[in-house]
Amino acid sequence: MTDTKTALLRSAERAARTKGFDGFSYADLAADVGIRKASIHHHFPAKADLTLAVMQRYHVAFAETCDRIDAAHTTGGARLHALIAAYRSALGNGEMVCLCVAFSISRDHITTDVRAAMGDFRQMMLEWLTATFTRGNGDGTIAQVADPAAEARAALALLEGAQLAARTQADPTAFDAALALMSSRLG
Amino acid sequence: MTDTKTALLRSAERAARTKGFDGFSYADLAADVGIRKASIHHHFPAKADLTLAVMQRYHVAFAETCDRIDAAHTTGGARLHALIAAYRSALGNGEMVCLCVAFSISRDHITTDVRAAMGDFRQMMLEWLTATFTRGNGDGTIAQVADPAAEARAALALLEGAQLAARTQADPTAFDAALALMSSRLG
DNA sequence: GTCTATACACAGATAGAC
DNA sequence: GTCTATCTGTGTATAGAC
Predict the structure, then answer these.
(1) Chain A nearest C-alpha distance from B1 (Å)
(2) What's the pTM value of the predicted model, to 2 decimals?
(3) Phi-psi region of A20 (alpha: psi -120 to 50; beta: other; left: phi over 0)
(4) Using CB atoms within 10 A as the burial measure, which of A37, A75, A76, A138 is most buried?
């Protein structure tokens, strides 16, 4: 993979998370990366190819983030706290959201491949969250866990909704405000 | 307001909530309503005018929904349950989201007026939710309420995030799954 | 109030030179 | 691998007839 290809993926991810799938063009990427837009087609023949590659790269990167969290923290509470921090830092200054959130709005304009990749990503997150709530319930570091799978579904919706709130208000502290109750349950 | 204008507003709202602000065009509306796209400019000179009108109409309609809920239910728990049902039914078959959610992704492409209207809408919802959690805490119909304002912020994020989940999976029951924990707190 | 016709910008994409 | 040049479709918006 050449530097140009990586630069394109990075630029496309940022653009998608800032402006949505429909909100960025090859012209934007070309200006950002410093090549002509025709050259992008050499690396990604169609925008659908680029979009799928961005999603896959994002999935791998986030899986690594989860692995790093698991390696760095042992209790469920500490792991969940670290995940919340990861979503928080992904906000930037309140202008970005998770790739899944950005794509779900443009759902009808993206290909089946990308939709499937979005489903895979969410499934991975739900499984990680379920395991983390189960662990936090066992070690007593997450309060009031009755149903870990239900907690996981609610937590993912809360994390994504909090990102939306921060973006809508262009204020990352709106994320913190939405997560305050959840955070207060972590020991 | 003529029938055509109302039809345009209705069509535009549905399109925005289904495909996002960047995802529908005057051509789409024209085909849906049954006039030519040039005729739309007679009612809404620019797309920004149409978008603002859709947002304002939505705000008024949702405020009326909240009023109807307050008139029909006395306890905090029953009112919150009714609001959850309202968000649930707004999903359609999993293809639509709340207008705020749909617009927040396209935030950089919409005008200042519309952004301000989005902020007004969210503020109204937060105030209604805070009052409802306060009431539910007082009458004992919502369990474990420590901070009504914090509950309101978390609940709004959860509702919006649950809509995203349902849309991503094209399955309205994903909304129910994300709200299950919250619903179990209502007496 | 709606139409046809059109202007203008920009989208994604391709051909072919270098 | 990148470029210039170009194609085709579509977007918003306008002019002027009916």
Answers:
(1) 30
(2) 0.97
(3) left
(4) A76
